[in-house]
Every structure is written in C-alpha cells, then in structure tokens.
User: Fold these one by one.
Assistant:
Number 1:
Amino acid sequence: MKVIRRLGGWRELLLRTMGWLHCALLVALYYGTVLRVILGEESLSWSLWRAMLLVIPFAVVDFAGEFSRKMWQFLAVGLGACGLAWLLLGYPLAAAPVAVVCFFRGKNRLSEDPVESLLDAPRLALVLVVLPPFLYSAMNGGARLQKVCFLWAAVYLLLWCARTGLARIQGYLALNQKMAGVPIKRIVRTSGLAVVGMVLLAGALLLPALLMEDGYFHIEEQKRQTAQAVVEIDQSQGSAFQVPEWMRAMGENAQFHIPPFFSYFLMAVGVALAAMALLYGVYLVLRNFRNSFVDHRDVVQYLHGPEDKLEAAPREKRKRPAFWDRSPSAQVRRKYRRAVLRLAREQLPQWASPQEIEDQVGLRDQRLHGLYEKARYSREGCTVQESRELKR
Amino acid sequence: MIVLLLAALFFLQSFLYDRLWGKGLEAKISFREEYATEDDTAVLTEVIVNNKLLPLPVVEIDFHMDKGLRFSGEANTAVSDRSYRRDVFALGVRQKITRTLEFQCARRGYYRIDQAGLDVRNLLLTKKYVGSSPQDTDFYVLPRMVSTQRIQIPFSRIMGSVLSRKKVYDDPFEFAGLRDYSRGDPMKYINWKASAKTGDLLVNIHESTLSQKVAVVVDLEGLGVQQADVLNEEAMRIACTLCVRLLEAGVQVEAWSNGLDALTGKPMAVPEVSGAGSILALRKTFACARADNGLLPIQSFFPGEEGDVLCVLVSRSQREELARDFAQRAGKREWVQIVPYRESYQELPQMGMVQRLYWEV
C-alpha cells in the first residue's frame, strides 16, 4: 500500500501499467514480425505472447526510477532489467528497447522537470507502426501476420482510449487535489465506469469481428508488359453463422444477398440494445435499493419520481367530453347535460356554474349535482359504480 | 463500420450533453440563519439537484461575496478584494446533494450572494459547459456587544442626564396597578369597581412616560488603514450596545451615521425607535453601515439646536475642530462624546456642557 501511495495511488499505478503495456505491445509486434520472417508462420503466436513478458523489465525500470536513491543504483537495476529482457526473449537484441526506456527514465531522473516521452503512454499516431508488418504480410502472403496486425491495432487503440480517458480523470483530480470536499470516489466511479464501459463495448464489437474475419489483403507484383504492380484484393468472407438449408435453397437462385457487414451491423445494434436493456434493468434494481447517504459533508438524496415533483395542477376541464370517451366521468357529464337541456327553455350562459344553471332550469337532483361536480372538477373523477347508480 | 458505430456513440454522448446538461439542474445557495453576531459561527448550505437521466460527474459551483466571512478550511476559497469560493460536486442520475459549509463571521457587515457560476463537464470529462444560476440569499453580521462592565460607565452618564431632565407624566393608558386611596389623590383616579368589590377606596397607579430622546451619531470616516478600521468597528460596537441598552431601559433612540447603508446606498439612518422589539432591526441597520473614505462630514448629522434631544457622538476623530462643533451645537445641553483610541489620546479641553469619554480599544 505504501508503494502504491508513493506512486500516486492506484489510478497512477494503472496509468503506469498501461504505459508498460504500450511499450510491450510495440516491441511484441516487431519481435513477432522478425521471428515470423526468420522462423516462419508457426512462431508467430508464441513469440507475441512471449514478447509481452517484457512488461516485467519495463515495470522494473519504472520502479527503479522512482525508488532508487542513487544514480548508480538505478543504473544497476536498469542493467539487470536489460539482462532480464534478454533472458525472457532469448536474444540479446531484446535488451535494446529496455535500454532505451532506461535512458529516458534516467534522463527524467536527472532533469528537474520530467518530460513524458513516447515510451510513457500510448499515442494515437503510434498505431501507424503497424503499417510495415502489414505491408510485409500483404506482399509475402502472411495471412496470419496480417490478422495479428489488425488485432494489434485494435488492442492498441483500445489501450489508447482507456489510457486517455483515465488520464483525463486523473488530470482533473490532480488539478484539484488541494481542494477540500472533492468527491473523488464518485467522480472516478461515474466517469471511470463510462470509460471502461465504452472500451469494453468497443472491444466486444471489434475483437470478435477481427477474430472471425478471414479476409486477406494480398498485393501481388505481376510481370506484365507495363511492369506495373497490380493490387489484388482477395476477400473471402467466411460467415460466422450457419445459414439454414431453406434459406440457402431460397438464396441460391436469388440475386440478392444480405451484405455481411449489414448482418454484423444488425448484430451490433442488437448487442447494444441488449446492453442498454441490461443497464436499465440494473438501474431499476438499484433504484429500489438505494437510500440517502452521507459522503463526507455531502448529503446525497435520490429523487424518487412523482412524489418529488411539484404537484401538477389538474387540467382545465371545460370542454365537453369527447365522443369516444366512454369513461364513467364522461357518462355522468353526458347524463347531466341531457338532463339540463331537457329542462332548459332558452340558451344557457357558458359562464354559469352548475348550481346557477340548475336554479335557472329548475333541476332539483342533488345526487346528479354532486356526481357532476365530481366528474368535472375532481382529480380522481367518478367510479363505474357511481355512473351505474345514476343510470338506474 | 464498427469504428463508425463507436464514433457515433461517442458523438451521441457529446450531443446529449450539449443539449441536456442544464436540464433539471438547479443550484441553490442559502445562509441557514438570517443573522449572526461577530465572531460567531454560521452555516451556508449548497443544494444541487440533477433531475434527469444523465449523470454529471463534475459540477463546479463558484460564487463570491465580501471577504468578511471566513470558511473553515480555506482550501476552496481564494481571498483577494472579495472572497471567491469554488466547490466540486458529482451528481448521479436524479440526485440531490446538500453540502453545508461552516464559516466564521469575522467582520460586521451585510453579505449577499446574487449569482452562482456553474461549470459542468460531460461524462468523459472532455467538454466543459458554463452557466450561471441566480441566487437570492443574504446574511447580516451584527456588531458584537461590548462588555457590560465597560459600557456601564457611558451608559450611566447618559442615563443620569436622561433622568435628571426627564419629565414625568402619568400615562392614562399605561396601567401599573392599584393602591389605597390617600388624601390629596384626584378623584378621577379612583377605581370605583375595585373599590365596590373591596369596600375600601382604591386608586389606579399609572406608568410614567419618559419624554427624553437620545440620538446616537457614529462617525465612520476612514477605510484601508488598519487603525481606522479597528477604531471604526469599535465605534459601531459602542454605539450599537448603547442603543440596545437604552432601548431596553425604555428610552427612545435614534441613530445616524455618515457611513453608507449597504442596502440603500445612503447614509445610515434610524429615525426614531423605542421598545425592545426594535433591537434586532436596529442591530441589522448597524450591520449594514459601511466605513469609507470621503464620506459626508459627521457634523451634518448632529441634531438641531432646538429640541430636547441628548446626543451621543462616537467618533475616533480627536480633532479639536470636531469637538468644538459638537460643543457649539450642544449649547447648554449635556451631550456626550465618546472617543475610541488605540494607543494614546490627546486630552481635548473641556468645551461647554459636553462630557467626553475616552475608550481604549
């Protein structure tokens, strides 16, 4: 705990970890590509995973930069980290990236104002480092390497998104760290969950699609008269879904085929809707359990809906009920109107109150009067029983 | 396609916040009490309501007021010409947060908050929205009462003057009780009903009415120099305490000052009040008076030469010219001048019937 506190808390540690992963990803891509060139397609997967072990020496160098008291101690640890990288990957060249990181960390240690280098955090522009391996795979028929390139780019983008989002939260909190009463936990919970949610959603949509994708971009140089390079794009789309026989039979003769990207889009929309429904369900469950609580000096209360709203004034009920309105209140009002019109000999003024109208026409039915006022002016209106009673 | 979908999601979030960030968002800042006395501790309440289905991870509320109120834990307060405060809140979906801030009333005055600024960030903290919310809350810091022991000396002198010249009239509307009839009592004072009940003659006793009026005049000239600020504040405390004591004693009081009233922008004026019920209103008026430079000369607030008013001048000024003007206006009336001082004072010569008191701060 003391170590984490010294590093600036678990959020700072998480950001640093993402920095190590970023370095390891960069090295892993090129390490894997080089081994693919030398040893062939089979070496690709294990070499990538093995290269990710470089996270350990990167972390060691980072910790050494923070915790070593003397420069020579840092250099000794750095040397050890380089040795560890050699040991982990089995090639002396593996120590080179660790040495570069050591150099920047050491430089920051010596300078008064540390400068963030490209090796500290993922950058959007660095996704372009995937281009050389991708072009190599396209020109030399490395379908597996190409798939790895796509996956790598997606993972790196996700890492960049997550790191940028969290860094923004951490930046805001660091800016206001001297302020009292900042609800750090609630800010982190709200914005952090949003970042994590978006990254997870992006990952859930991107990674399965890339894993299922069998397409392959192939650039083939054809020897023709013009000696021009012709780019051919083979894109055999392997569907992830088993199409039913009846649909296949129906579709074989048909000209129209649902484009695969559209079906995937529909699936994504479905997933998004399901996720939203799930989130809304969680919200509804939580709403029933939550109560007011005190967080430091803040009393946090939940607004529970109608009872917290201002009581809505009843709508003005001046117009006669609509023709299709068969509610008990409407029936009572119609009955009253008929009774009044039956007795009235002349036009009744619109401004008159029910009592005035009744006095004028000579209607003496207290029951009808009471029910009419209830139907017209009360909020709840008349009940079915009351309406039926009046009909008898 | 997927990347486009994700980008659309991001922009949808941004669009929703652009449109709806201010919907259902309310901020209300209010002082819990209406007034407090100098050096007391009071409470300010901030209530923020987010009545919509969008969470607001960061809502900053800022407001400013006069720097006489000191918040405990000054971390969120920047004090320069005024006191600027900023607080951060995190509001979930349909949430209401109430935060209470304790502060110390460091200086007498009238404090008002008219507006609060709102800085809201969107879900991913990528955008900032700025707005404001009108507020309507005010607070009086009443002048501290000086100790009874110290005020007793000037108060006794004033009351001595009052009593020596008071004219006693029986007030037929102020019934004080009954006593046995004695020879010489006017017949109109006999209470016939009570006499019939007891069988002995009883007469009514009435309260007397004080016709004496006291005018307290406070000089608030001078601002910015520490000595002047301290002495002016003490002058207000002395004047306020005297007024309160006089009102409690049943004397009619009026108070004048060349200091401007924070509410009206005119020189402080309490035309004529009496009774203990007026004490709070009087203290509030004293709270509103502000010292300043270049105010009207205090001489213009002295009562007229006619009338039986007893005037008490509270001024830090030790100028002979002021003392002479005061004595000249007093004429043969026994007026009182109180001179607060800090380290030393220069004894002014006795002028007319004016009694002069020096008050060490």
Number 2:
Amino acid sequence: MSAARAGDGATSIVIDGIGGQGVRVIGNTMALLLDHMGYEVTLLYDYDSSVRGGMSVAFLKYGRQPIDNPVVEVADVTLRLGDRGPGHLESRYVVSDIDLVKPGEDAEEIPFLELGVREFGRDLFGNMIALGRLLRLAGVEFNDEDLAPALPRRYQAENMAAVRYGYALTDEQIRHIVPEQAAAEFAEDYAEAIAAGHPPKEAIELAGTPRDDAAWAG
Amino acid sequence: MARRLLQGNEAVLLGALRAGATYYAGYPISPSTEILMRASVHAADHPEFRFLQAEDEIASANAIIGASLAGAKSFTATSGPGFSLMQEAIGYAHKVGVPCVFVDVQRVGPATGMPTMPGQGDILQSRYGSSGDYTSLVFYPSSVVECYRYAVEAFNAAEESLSPVVLLTDAFIAHLNEVVDLDAIEVEVKERTLPALASGQTRLFTGVLVYADGEPATADADEYLRQYEEAKARRLTIAERYAFHEYGWNTEAETLLIAYGITRRICQPLASHFALWRPVRIWPVLERELREVAARHRNIVVVEGNDGQYAGVVERVLRRDVARVPLLGGRMSLEAVREGLARLGLLAPEAVGPAGAAR
C-alpha cells in the first residue's frame, strides 16, 4: 500500500499515542529524515498536560511545496500506539499496535513493543520498528545516510536496524506475527501500566507479569 | 545556516538574539517553556547573554524592565496566567517608557485552564491588561519563519516607540516545527536608543506622574494630558511603520474571513471559497486597512480561538455586523471552522471535504 496524497498535495501522517510511548521520538525522527531528503515538513504536537498517560499526538505533513495547514484532519496513514487522538480525525489507512483497530477501518495490526523485545532486546526499539513500517506505508524510500543523522544518537546502530526491520516487514510476515493472543494481552497490559504512571521500562516488565502478581499492586 | 527543522518557540528566541537581545528573565509555563530552556542553554555558551529564571512572572517582568534601563535589549516569555501577573509591570514600562519585549504563548484559559491546548484568549489582555490608558504595540505571527521575523520587529518597535511590545503566539504556532532557512530572511535591526543607567545622565524612573525636574505632578491634569498625548502620538506614529497584514485568497468572494495566528493556517484549505484578511499587527488595530478591505465584501466573519474578542473590535471599527466563528476549548480544526461557517449559512456542509478538497 502506498499512501494517497491529500487535497493540498502533501502527505499527512498522524502518530496517535499516550504520553511516554515515544510519539515524539518517532515524529521527530521521521520529520528530520524527510527534512534531510529535501521535503517541506510540518510537525505539530498536540498533547495533554499529563506527562504520562495523557493524549499525545503528532501531526506530520510533508511534500514538495510549502505546507499551509499543519493540523491534520484526514491522515493518509495513522500510526496508532494508543487511542487518544482527536475524534474528528479520519484515516485512509491505519497501522496499529494490537487491539486498537476500529470497526470498518482499513488497517493492520503489529505488536511493535513485543517485536522490539523479541528482535532487539528492548521495547523501545518497537518505536523504531513502527517508524520503519510507517515509512514503508507512506512510500518514503530513504538511504542510511539520510536516516543516520535523524536517529537518536544513543543506540544508533540498533535503531537503524530496527527501522530497517520494520521497513522490510512483508504482509506475509505480519500475518504470521499478529494473531497471537499473548501479544494482544501484552500490548493491553503495557498501555494500562503506562496510563497508571509506570515508566516504560517498568511497564514492559509488568506487561510480562501475571495480573495477580504482587508487582501490579505497586 | 542551511535549511533546518525549527520549532516556533526556538524561532522566537533566535529572532530575539538576531535583534540583539542580551537579557532574558522568565518563569517556566507551558506552552512557552522552550523559549526559557533555549535561552538558558544559549546563556551557558555566551556569557554576554544574561539569563535569569526568576521566582515568578512578576519578578521576571520587573527584571527585564531593570535590565532594559541598564542598557540591555531584554525580553521574557510566558503564557496567559503568567501574562496576567505581568500586567502591573507592563503598565509601569509604558509609563516610564521602557523598551522591552513580552512574548505571550497563548493557551486555553482563564487561569490554569487547559495548559497545553492552543487558545487566542489574550487578544484584549494584550491591549487592556494593565490599568489606565496606554498605547500597545502587539504582533502575532502565523508561522515559524514569522516567529523569527516578528520577534526582530517586536524589538525594533520597542526601541523606536520606547515602550514594551507584545509578541503573541499560541500553543500550536509555538510547538509547530517547520523547515526554514533563517539566513534567507533579511531583517533590519534597530539599535539601542536609550542611554544606559550609569552613563552620566540623570534619569528618573517612577510610575508616579512627575514633572521634568522630578517633582510630583500628581494633581496636574494638564501635565498628565501633555505626557499622555506625547507618548500616544509617538507610539501611533511608530506603529505606522509596522503595519503588517495580509489580504488575499479569493478576493472576489462575497465573504471575507479574518483570521490570525494558527487559525489563519487552519482556514487555508478554504482559500478558493473566501477572501482572507490577516492582521499581523493586532494592536493598534489597522483601522484604515481593515475598512478598505471590508468595503469590498458583503459578509465579514472573524475566525478566532476565543469568544469574539477581535470580532468585537472589528465590529466597532467597521460599524457593521460581523459574524463570529469561535474555536474554543483548544478545538483548533478545519472541521470546527467548517461547522461554524455552515451554521452561519456561508458554507454548505457538503461543499468542502474534510481535507478542504471540493467534493
């Protein structure tokens, strides 16, 4: 799938999540990459004042002409890591973590956090896998020289590999990954832990812990 | 400097530095805090640039007044609640004639309100927030590039008018990142006009009305009028040099939209349906320009992130009915604008798609 262009000629991306999930990291990295590639870019964050657990949305538009309205109303692609975004938002295509797809949407589900742990040893690499998939769906063809300066300096090699992994995911691979119920529960528990105020590292541990474990009580 | 992705708040700081600012005092408050943060980082590497994180907004406002009197081009940044606290100091700066810049990044108020949500509710506060009569110069950019450009102009206008100048933005413009090339922007910088304290001249700084020799004039109406008219005339004359505004889109349309800041950007997909007039200089109101433009259109609609603050001003200037599309509670979206225009009977709901493309 390659994203269709919106009425103003720009491609519109929305990253919908909750505070602490990495919406800003993904948005910043993608915007910097597109800037390096010579695109006109607008990136606007809309967020609640709750640092963790509140709404956090990035509106990203890019194209070859200057962009006038930076607020996205119809997204060519929405990356949904949480579901707190504006109610009026329409999405032509949604790539979502598990259990966040709404009825009638043209969408796919990928357990990004679990893939981050499974493939790269840490949940935070799930964000870069998501970015890779987002770039693929948006039809952005990039090279490593453009991507490297856009990535966070810490774990740059791992992040690069994670983006490339997400970019290379095939529909067949995604179909193979997704139906696991464990992944669905993992994502749900992780989101709940983040909403409860746990930092991501604790949340990932809690998500792998049975609900009746004493750790959840803390 | 090449093209780069830059945030509105960062652009305000860079504009201030380009204008020659050497002093910042502030107290952190969303959505303006990035200006304070970047100013502190700049100060760490540039000892000639002084930075103060004060105990509150009152102290910040008075600190930049003191710094200006001491010879520095100075500024602060805040949001609605902090701007309220600064009003007494702003009045003092008007009375004494202190050039300095107040940046107000608007959010949804009143009070703490919705701290990260975009609002435009300080339009009247930026004009009438302090006590008594005074003449305010207020600019409001609509893009990251304009945050830079009009930050420079705010400092220039402050120097020329010998008064505090307000630069309004909003949470969306402040947190918007855009690709810019600041080197490509030509700006003129006005040099400092006032001698600094300790430069050999005797100067008196008091909020009380005094004669030239420093004696109180607190019961002399004629002296009050002389000083008031002199300050007003100077600021209105200087304001004429800063008559920034925009008129365009479909200028043959029956309906003229008036929008500023982020609302002007949000309305852009309606460009084929409406004419647009955007004041960049919010105060003093661009009355002559507004009258000329309004005379060409049957309907006037003000789209703004408050409940009709600028619309009321437009109505007073034009002496005719002005329709309102208020965007309240942080709901800054084209959908909300379309709903408002449809409610007024000026846009068929099915006429324009969600992204602005004709259906």
